[in-house]
Amino acid sequence: MTHMLLSPTPAEVNEFADAYMRGMRSKDNVLVVVGCCCVEYVGRARSMLGWGGRVVIVKSDGSVLVHQKVGGAPVNWQPPDTLVRYRTEAGNGISLFVIYSYRLKPPEKMYVRFKTVDMVSAHRLRDDRTLRIMGAESDIVDRIMGDPGVIEEGLRITDREKQTRSGAIDLFGVDRDHIPVIIEIKRSQPTPSAVLQLKAYVLDHQHRHTGAVRVRGILCAPSMPVMIRTLLTENKLEWRVFKCEFEQVDDAQSTLEEFT
Amino acid sequence: MTHMLLSPTPAEVNEFADAYMRGMRSKDNVLVVVGCCCVEYVGRARSMLGWGGRVVIVKSDGSVLVHQKVGGAPVNWQPPDTLVRYRTEAGNGISLFVIYSYRLKPPEKMYVRFKTVDMVSAHRLRDDRTLRIMGAESDIVDRIMGDPGVIEEGLRITDREKQTRSGAIDLFGVDRDHIPVIIEIKRSQPTPSAVLQLKAYVLDHQHRHTGAVRVRGILCAPSMPVMIRTLLTENKLEWRVFKCEFEQVDDAQSTLEEFT
DNA sequence: CGTGCCAGGTGCCGT
DNA sequence: ACGGCACTTGGCACG
User: Fold this and answer.
1) Is pLDDT at B70 greater than 80 in this prediction?
2) How far is CA B70 from CA A11, A58, A110, B55, in A?
3) CA B46, B48, B53 angle in degrees (round to 5)?
4) What is the band of A249 on the pLDDT scale with cuts at 50, 70, 90?
5) Angle B186-B191-B192 from CA coordinates, rounded to 5°
6) Most buried of the four, A38, B7, B105, B134, by CB within 10 Å?
7) Residues B46, A247: contact at Cβ < 8 Å?
């Protein structure tokens, strides 16, 4: 089901949007509006965006996305569960089509005002599939639990998501010399705060086991910037560069050839 | 400029996409494709998404966004500066329209394969406006610098973004008793890592000024969960609940009435 | 260009 | 509902 209008009047867009996006039957519908609009947002912050051509998507779950011609992220938006209403407004002589969205917690509202609409379309999307993803942090933790040797020979993992006062330790275990080991895993390049986190876990563990001679802390990440290594060393912590391979050899070359 | 096709064949979409999205003249153009597709992504992670109706946006800066009928975030995407190519593929008997995108750093590729296209449209977006936003963390810092009394009577701010070994202190000053004060500001609910950050700043400052009798650390955020208060207290740190007001009175009531 | 860090972060899963 | 945290985080500012 696809319906659309080219260069509609504000009143026509308004009628169109109401027809396809209101009521229970519109549950699977998505509205796409392309035209010259300005955006006003007030809520956790406040923002203004002047007149310009944008693509706006409204989903029946209440999501509203305003996209400029550049950028991977929407310039303005409302999350799901937002109330959306369509209306026309009289703005000094000319008529405007307005997408008004509002939610209570936190109180936030957004106005998208169109002075011209190039195209509006409504689409019924049939889709029951969910994304299946590999390579999340939990997958890396899985991988290490299944084969602790990738971190260190003789390592034995005893706990996962072990709770401490300062937060949850990703992996907890003992090395070949029975010394406790705390492992913090990052799927992307670690920041100094990851070092602080690990240090806090180690200190917390030492505090709770006053008798323990030593606790090791290992930061495990796909890359390890020099500054991070310095911070780790200063804090008597260790690191392992560990990258899970989801794609084998870098096929950049062969792929690039496809772009000729 | 808006061009579109309803229920085009894969070959027609391919030709359409190439016509409007290739070359320098397409700099301001955006492509919208609505249809039944599946998505394959390989890069920092790997993902698969089965067949279903989606809205796909391709921008001329290389951004690609795949949106399902629900959710505020794209289910799959490529950021700006991605290379995008269009092609047709023969998949067991039927022909497919494929949006293929690729980038080098990090190496990531995504295939969006359409088995049917309900609508494809191309739009020239004229837009030179940028978002003007109020209420960012820097605005809150501005506010406190302009009137330190909102944090504490007699407080005097001396430094902003003061660099330390562990990172940059948002605000640095002295209280009415000339005791140094380190202030960490969060615009949203703070996490334990904010406490660790603040503690690191305080320790670093004490380390550099071995003679200093005392340094105060204050975490300043719009809300302060119990666990955070506990952590702060344990670490001899303080907190202020401080919320900047960008919208005056909560006009939820009057606004809700508009929804009747 | 790498590095660090804020974001109207969003989304997910836990209690 | 609130809290805690990962994310293909994205985006920006700075060395």
Assistant:
1) yes
2) 27, 10, 19, 11
3) 140
4) very low
5) 120
6) A38
7) yes
pLDDT, one tens digit per residue, over B15-24 is 999 999 998 8
pLDDT, mean of residues A138-167: 92
Look up the CATH number of domain B2-124. Answer: 2.70.180.20
List the 118-177 stretch of A: residues with Cβ below 8 A of B.
118-119, 121, 123-136, 165-167
- Identify the weakest region by mean pLDDT among A120-124, A196-200, B6-10, B161-165: B161-165
Residue listed under structure tokens 């504000």? A10
Q: Does A78 touch chain B (CB under 8 A)?
A: yes
C-alpha–C-alpha distance, residues B195 and B232, integer Å: 6
Distance of CA B26 to the CA centre of its chain: 27
Q: Which amino acid is at A155?
A: L
- Kindly report whether the global pTM for this prediction surpasses the value 0.90: yes
Contacts of A258 in chain B (CB under 8 A): 85, 100, 102
Chain B residues inside the 8 Å CB shell of A166: 192, 196, 231
The pair of structure tokens assigned to B257 is 């009435």
Please name the fold of domain A137-241: Trna Endonuclease; Chain: A, domain 1 (3.40.1350)
Identify the pLDDT of residue A224: 95
CA distance to A21, A34, A119, B156, per residue, from A62 (Å): 10, 18, 21, 46
Domain borders along chain A are: 2-124, 137-241
Contact of B66 with B32, CB cutoff 8 Å: no
Q: Which two tokens stand for residue A137?
A: 């942090």
Nearest CA to B9 out of B70, B76, B94, B75 is that of B94
Q: Which residue is nearest to nucleotide D4 (CA to C1')?
A: B191
